[in-house]
Amino acid sequence: MACTHKDVVFEANANGWVPSGSRTALSQHQEHPARLPAVGLGHGHKPSGGYVLASDRDDEKDGLCQAITPGVLKRGVTYRVAGWISVAAAEEEVGNHQIGHPVRVSIRLGDGACAVVDGGAVWAEPGRWAEIKGAFRLRESPRSAAAVHVHGAPAGVDVKVMDLGIIAADRKARFSYLKDKTDKVRKRDVVVKLRGAPGASVRVVQLDNGFPLGSCINGEVIQNPAFVDFFTNHLDWAVFENELKWYWTEAQRGQLNYGDADRLLDFCDRAGKPVRGHCIFWAVDGDVQQWIKDIGGDRDQLMGVVQDRIRGLLGRYAGRFPHYDVNNEMLHGRFFRDRLGDDVAALMFREAAQLDPGAALFVNDYNVECANDPNATPDKYVDLVRSLQRGGAQVGGIGLQGHVSNPVGEVICDALDKLAATDLPVWITELDVGEPDVALRADDLEVVLREAYAHPAVQGVVLWGFMQGHMWRQDAALVNADGTVNDAGQRFIELRREWTSNARGRLDSDGQFMFRGFHGTYVAQVTTPTGTKMLKAFTVEKGEAALVLDMDT
């Protein structure tokens, strides 16, 4: 879906760049056509080949800037940052196996001690062009000068910029495009048949959608009647916020606490909600309890407690959790791999698969869908999955946490497309959309949910809470503290209603009634002209051919 010219609010002029940094020098160049990337997500056209090189950089903050015409950027509008970035290796890196550098795009607002807004980031490698796919939104319209600033690579690394632009996101156009895509991905033709009863009335009611939506819960919120009411009526799955994490179940070595998890699991069993197991391990140093850190360099002892954790948790709960996040946030942490070797990550998967072969074992990480974190690009996530699989890991799914702000549908879809190349199911596992303005929050939530629902690789979405005062991000609530449903919550309910198929009609002369319905469970009632009623439950699953529901059998 290419952008139109009216969507582009800023296009960098090669002659408009100025250096940032006391020694930074700028020069213009033309890339060889054979080295140009293909058509990108941003502008929708082939790269021009003309680029500006920033050299002699003394600091990560050094780079190149270009002014933005005053009055162009408006408050409350979501903008995409598009263009191409590359780097040249620093002199000391030539001949080494260096793999690239982070490069960031920022929007500077005002003169002097200006405010800075993140406009995205890429992992740029010498000899290759990386597409920038950032996004930003301003809380207030700039009162003075604004500028684009490209920077972030280490000192001594030359930065190349080609065709940088800022584009206003067109959500209405995007949603219109997604409508047909959603119909193909999430719907199927259904034929209701009954011999010898032309003209009989047909009523079809969808009971559940085949695309699960869930939320995290904890021991406190399940005591809140307003929370429980929204959860039981509007959500299908659960995940425990903290109660299954290792630092919760064994805060002190040898003192196990599964009681909190057991109580939450009992609550979900009574409510009929499946639960994701989050998480067996956490790869980030700051989320590893102190007694494990105190083991220090004793490799055998650390491996022993790792094995005890897997066997204790999965031995207790085998068959209870359909999913497990095995080693959370491996793109951002290496605690166990640094101490036990890279193969320990695959070993965790192998051991978990043996103990609970029915569970889908997930990787789970953040920022992959946002294009703002050079450590968490979709390509790096795919590389991680491939590495685990080479080590014998039975990776059963990819988790995108979804802690997002000012999301752009095209950027999310691009990440999902790349992850889909693994042929693994994708879940958004911890969705919260941060935005103080609740009307904009509703719009942002709709962006994420529509992209997820329209993408064939995505099999479910779990919210990281939904009630004000009971969430990690307080500007992401769908339900206010007093139990009233806000604009974002209403949008959520409206989307669920939109993705529900109910049909009425009559059998034609051939004894058939056809409708196109969303995947999920249904009940059909046929009432013959003589008043005989026939009921049948059925499930609409993915399929190209029409599903035939024969009321005679």
UniProtKB/TrEMBL annotation:
Keywords: Carbohydrate metabolism, Hydrolase, Polysaccharide degradation. One of its GO terms (molecular function) is endo-1,4-beta-xylanase activity. It comes from the Eukaryota. Residues 201-495 form the GH10 domain. The keyword Hydrolase applies. Pfam families: Glyco_hydro_10. InterPro entries: Galactose-bd-like_sf, GH, GH10, GH10_dom. GO terms for biological process: polysaccharide catabolic process. The keyword Hydrolase applies. Belongs to the glycosyl hydrolase 10 (cellulase F) family. This is GH10 domain-containing protein. The lineage of its organism: Eukaryota, Viridiplantae, Streptophyta, Embryophyta, Tracheophyta.
